[in-house]
Amino acid sequence: MASNAADDDLAPSKTEGFKVGEKKTVEEYKQLDQNDESLRRWKESLGIGAGATLSDPKDPRRAIITSLALEVEGRPDIVVDLTAPGSLEALKKKPYSIKEGAKFRMKAVFRVQHEVLSGLKYLHVVKRKGIRVSKDEEMIGSYPPNTSDKPTYEKKCNIHQQLYLRPVTNAFTVNTEEAPTGMMARGSYTATSKFIDDDNNTHLEFEWAFDIKKDW
Fold first, then answer.
1. Model confidence pLDDT, tens digit, residues 176-212
2. CA atoms of 212 and 102, how far apart (whole Å)
3. Residue closest to 211 by CA, chosen among 179, 186, 193
4. H and E: helices and strands count for the chain
5. Helix (H) or strand (E) run with residue 37 in it
6. Does the global pTM surpass 0.85?
7. Stretch (H or E) spanning 64
8. Residues 6+ apart with CB under 8 A from 43
9. Which helix (H) or strand (E) holds 28?
10. Burial class, 168, CB count within 10 angstroms (exposed 0-12 / middle 13-18 / buried 19+)
11. Is 98 helix (H, G, I), strand (E, B) or coil?
């Protein structure tokens, strides 16, 4: 039962009537309507056909999250190098401290290889004492494989639209978020985050923890 509940917590929202479009390889995109100038400019804006490929034929992953950073207003970024051994395990064991009312967000640096990545989303669930208090979801977008002209992508993901001391429904955030304030909001929280695409492929899922405190 616990596993099913966790799966439901991190299930992305679905738009009624939406269907994932037909998949095309990078080569098919390159050949698509070569005489169409507007389409050519669109493909160039995506980086399709520009630069040498960086895809590793020995690595089957399509999206590789290389680092995460917690950006807190007025404080140095807390950066986690995900290429370092044991980095994900350390996230949950060492909670971050965030001052109540502080504005913060998460930044992800990642790369795409092999084929176009369609509809990458960031999902985020926060719990306190085992009870879900917040769920956020943000569309990151679709990306072609990185090349020498564009070796990585960077996305700033907004988290914690508001932390309530009761379960809440799904929330979609668009701005830098603010930590809750007040004695009732202070305490320890656990969070689970996930990067998933339109095909329901999970590219990274991890747990971490943070404390809301009166001061730094």
1. 555 666 677 788 999 999 999 998 999 999 999 988 8
2. 9
3. 186
4. 4, 11
5. helix 37-46
6. no
7. strand 63-72
8. 29, 30, 32, 49
9. helix 26-31
10. middle
11. strand
